[in-house]
Write a structure and sequence with these properties.
mainly alpha, 13 helices, globular
Length: 207
């Protein structure tokens, strides 16, 4: 079966697991390519004086790790891939990217517990209104499969984790399935590392 038929077969409002995984796998690939291209272009054309403004911040690893953990614990407020770009340019990229993955995993656990604790309050309804309307049925229908998908793709991991907690999803199962968040960071780290190496060549190329 071709990809087009696979996408079009069945009810669009009720796709199969495979259709949903392919759809978000495709979105993940496109977003990854777009990020790499954008980063290379920024490195090439952004004035060095502008980049230097951010150097004091990039040298404060404890602060960046702390900000990242808070973001991953509360709705994923910041784009995690920005932190991966920073990590791969550090002297110990494997360590830094691994730590980001672990912190994101831990942030998902915090989000899960927050959902479990405040799931009956109006504040929670406001925080995850859009996520609830889009993903509640998927979580109830697919369970751990959807948690893994959220951990690996652009589906918002922290809000989905919070929603899982509010829906009574098993904490033990969540801890297991959400471990896939760490390989996601490592995979992105590899791609961004080699993109960083390519960008150095691109910067020095005379157009």
């Amino acid at each position: 079966m071709g990809l087009r038929k696979l996408f079009q077969s069945g009810d669009e409002r009720n796709p199969t697991r495979l259709q949903y995984a392919i759809r978000y796998g495709y979105k993940t690939l496109l977003s990854l390519v777009a990020i790499v291209v954008l980063f290379v272009l920024v490195k090439k054309f952004l004035p060095s004086s502008t980049i230097e403004l951010f150097e004091p911040l990039s040298e404060n690893a404890p602060l960046l790790f702390s900000v990242f953990f808070v973001s991953e614990s509360i709705l994923g407020l910041l784009f995690p891939d920005l932190f991966i770009w920073w990590a791969v340019s550090e002297p110990t990229p494997v360590l830094y990217v691994s730590l980001l993955g672990i912190l994101s995993y831990a942030g998902g656990i915090v989000s899960f517990l927050l959902g479990k604790w405040i799931g009956d309050y109006k504040l929670f309804e406001q925080l995850v209104r859009n996520v609830r309307s889009k993903y509640t049925h998927r979580i109830q229908k697919w369970g751990g499969f959807f948690v893994v998908l959220a951990a690996l793709t652009p589906i918002p991991f922290s809000p989905v984790s919070m929603l899982c907690g509010s829906l009574g999803f098993s904490l033990k199962k969540f801890l297991i399935y959400s471990l896939s968040r760490i390989p996601r960071f490592l995979a992105y780290g590899v791609v961004f590392y080699y993109a960083e190496e390519f960008s150095k060549f691109f910067e020095n190329y005379n157009w």
